[in-house]
From TrEMBL:
Similarity comment: family membership: Belongs to the YqgF HJR family.
Pfam families cross-referenced by the UniProt entry: RuvX
Gene3D superfamilies: YqgF/RNase H-like domain
UniProt entry keywords in alphabetical sequence: Cytoplasm, Hydrolase, Nuclease, Ribosome biogenesis
GO molecular function: hydrolase activity, acting on ester bonds; nuclease activity
Name this polypeptide is given: Putative pre-16S rRNA nuclease
GO BP annotation list: rRNA 5'-end processing
Location relative to the cell: Cytoplasm
Domain YqgF/RNase H-like: residue ranges: 2-104
Enzyme Commission number: 3.1.-.-
Main enzyme class: hydrolase
Amino acid sequence: MKRALGIDVGKKRIGIAISDALGWTAQGVETIHLKTTEPDEAFPRILELVKENEIEQLVVGLPKNMDGTIGGRGKECQAFAENLEEFSSLPVAMYDERLTTKAAERTLLQADVSRKKRKKVVDKMAAVMILQSYLDHQSNL
């Protein structure tokens, strides 16, 4: 299994997670705070993380509607993934992220994390959930 980097693309923040060397587990790394409304501004930082961690695969969360269709937000994430693939020259997989941010928020609430702290880590945790789901799916193929 290749070392992978998971990305949860948001309008203001981008959560980042990285797999272990064996591709079994995902760990949250950081949250990139966007200064503009263009998520592509995160590409240079993502590329730094790719080089530092010898990443060979990128995984971008794809927000689908509950009926499985792809809406406006999903199309924005697809465009982000296409641009990132071109920018990084690495393969980019899209992975269904339905409910990951909600699940991350629920987990943090159950752990009694304050609202202020939740806001700081929820995107990173959503990236972990996206990447971990992707890794689990790949190991079952």
